[in-house]
Amino acid sequence: MSALQTTALVLCFVIPSIGWILLFRQVFRFTRLFRTGRPDPTRTGEPAKRTMTLVREFLGHTRMARLPWVSIAHWFTALSFLILFATLVNAFFQLIWPDFRLPIIGTFPPFEWLIELFTVGGFLGIILLIVVRQRQHPRSAAGEHGRRSRFFGSTWWQAYYVEFTILAVTICIALLRTLEAAHVERLHPGTNIALHFPLTGWMRGMWGGLSIAGIEEAIYLVAMIKILVSFAWMITIALQPTMGVAWHRFLAFFNIWFKRNADGRTALGALQPMTIDGKPFSMDAVEEMDEDTSMGVAKAEDLTWKQLLDVTTCTECGRCQSQCPAWNTDKPLSPKLLVMTLRDHAHAKAPWMMASEEARAGLPEHTKALAHMPLVGQTGYDMEHPLTAYDALGPEAVIDEDVLWSCTTCGACVEQCPVDIEHVDTIVDLRRNQVLIESAFPAELGGLFKNMESKGNPWGMAQRARLDWAKDLPFPVKQVGKDVEDLSEVDYLFWVGCAGAFEDRAKKTSRAVAELLDTAGVSFAVLGDGETCTGDSARRAGNEVLFQMLAQQNVEQLNEAGATKIVVTCAHCFNTIKNEYPQVGGSYEVLHHTQLLNRLVREKRLVPVSRPAEDARKSTAKNPASSAPVVTYHDPCYLGRHNNVYAPPRELIGSLPGVELREMPRHGETSFCCGAGGARMWMEEKLGTRINMNRTEEALATGADRIAVGCPFCRVMLSDGVTAKEADDASVEQVEVVDVAQMLLAAVRRGDEVEAPVEEAAAAAAAATATGAAGVAADGAPEGIKPDRDDRQTQTSPAQEAAAEEQEEVRVPDENDQEAVHAANVADPWDDDDTATAAPAPAAQTQPDPEPTPAPTTNDVADPWDDDDTATAAPAPAAQTQPDPEPTPAPTTNDVADPWD
Ligand code: SF4
Ligand code: SF4
């Protein structure tokens, strides 16, 4: 036995032994730490489905598919970690017998091909990932200190160390294979080298100068290096429980298996209910609570075991950070930094969390200092250096409160995360504690909570005004309890929502949808003043008690009315009723209006008609219809990412003849938030640049004349953005933010207007029939004159379109003539006058209204929290009324389309 072989045997016995011991110790510690977390009994149901999800996500790398090259490279490195373990075992035996092969499979060609494929694949994969990391390094990225890099704030030495290990191991395996090939060739000259060493055998010539003994010495050396590199890595990660870039190789399997939805859906849509002692909170539980009852997450030990597992699994890849609207507008919130800091804090505090009461007294002072450290507080961080808003060791708090309140709950982080970390639930749990226990929340939310609690809507409007939106419609809108006894008499309950009832622009959507449903012959009824806010904003702001109160009230009302099928126009109402009301006993079939309208268009119950080329009129208070030649569509987060409704609004726009849909660079799953979710609609946006301006600029850059939305919150935010841009660019004046329903209504109305003169002719012809005229169709229309409703698109002549346009010109007041319109408004039941004095004043109403606005009365300037029904005004987020401190340029396709990102 040579000195080298002896040394190799000793080292490769000692180091791996230490490695295994430390690794098992760390796994045991993980288990103990996770067991200190709060219970979460929802994570183990449907084990077969969970296993299938795990297999699919791992083998298919489905959660990384959006970065295809990165996904392929990672697929090879991830699988090589498992498959090449066989070579590690082989290497140990090669220290004794250099020609050793694993029994049975060792010289089985398919096994050898597999090993070679994943050796080369793993090598190329890690090279690719190293290149990507360097290309994306903060030193060459945009933003302050390169914060646009998704790796900004990641732990670099850990990433480099992991990359080095994989690179070194794959090189060692490749070298061993070439040595084995050379060795075999010498010992067994007739061996088919190409068959057994298809990818490495051709390099065996480099050992041509070595004797057999020399080759064997080389095998000892390379096998030893391979083993030592592997176990040095094992020792390193065993001593570094926060090394997520390495630990995710093990923990990701568990994190995916225990994910919220066994079928693989991301943890979006419904928020998890707040739990008290592991049981879902309900209003009944309030009476049993005492002052010691903890709600939400205040400290690390309040996290559930799954949340502890979540944060420990983070790979620091930064995909979440790169998509986060808060981070991209220079706010301190980064979901990656949040998760990393919670992880670092929990593991620093782990000895205290795992120790018994008696043992805690004997812990080191630096550990005991963490015992009562709050997770959220004022850290006095430096805005220029967002990393200072996070400190796992405090001393004031682990993360700054600005980090927490910057979140729009858009879900981009959850949607992006390759290891299924559930950021939004954790963020809301932290908010719950701040609101319900600490009473520490942005001041604006106080008014919101008060309005929702006392008035049942965020605007603080009187319930009796809930049906004002329907005044003067040319058909009656039925109300449950008045016009219909219950909902069995109609097809749908139309859930109007607070915005749809009170917010001027959203009212146009309500009217458009009602008119379209009526046109299509779909019967519906509304709850009117029986409807209350769904509680979406309250829940996402952390006020679970208020949400439960509103939700139970609504569910009782809905169940009493016999609701089964509900159509809504607000993405937030849609998500809450569909996904969250089942948690409080209300399960219904809920459709977003774009889904229902799309269905009606497909069934040809609504027939859009071609738009005259020059027609690009904005909507007005009286005419909620609007259309234009080029349209871009903004995906509302709570419709798209949270509920996967991407196609219906697009199909609907696609069904509008003469309208081109022009997508923004960030659309679909990678859409960018408007800034209103997570109750941010009601908060000032003081930090960084404005999210709505960022999105508006992206929308305007498409050159579209209409920014179509499917949510009243998005509409307010983007309308504000367009209004702000108008000051800089006159051409923006022609742009309007509209709901998809409004465009459809414009197109369907054109059909009616085309039809009207034709029907008059038909009536004349019918009269002629009565006097004996021939050639009249059975339905009273002269044959060959009345267009088939389904064929209008092709039968509409330019002359008819011109006639239709003319008619519309007559019917629709000139919106530029503000005085005339205002005069008309005064006497018109559609006039906002009755509510204008009580006008809600969310962001939008504080800016120049594109529509004529009645002169303000004293009521307009009354205290927004005044309980006077006629004077109530909603919180007016200053962020939406202040100029953008530094508008962020709209992203280019380069910002979003790089598969290497
Ligand atoms: S939910 Fe949206 S805003 Fe909140 S952390 Fe995730 S990406 Fe950022
Ligand atoms: S996407 Fe997931 S794994 Fe990647 S940094 Fe964010 S939380 Fe961590």
TrEMBL record:
Domain of life: Bacteria
Coiled coil segments of this chain: none
Composition skew (Low complexity), residue ranges: 775-784, 836-848, 871-883
GO CC field: plasma membrane
Signal peptide start-end: none
Transmembrane segments annotated in the record for this chain: 6-28, 72-93, 113-132, 157-176, 218-239
Region (Disordered): 775-901
Keywords: 4Fe-4S, Iron, Iron-sulfur, Membrane, Metal-binding, Oxidoreductase, Transmembrane, Transmembrane helix
A GO MF term: 4 iron, 4 sulfur cluster binding
SUPFAM superfamilies: alpha-helical ferredoxin
Location of the 4Fe-4S ferredoxin-type domain: 305-332, 395-427
Protein name as it appears in the record: 4Fe-4S dicluster domain-containing protein
Organism: Arsenicicoccus cauae
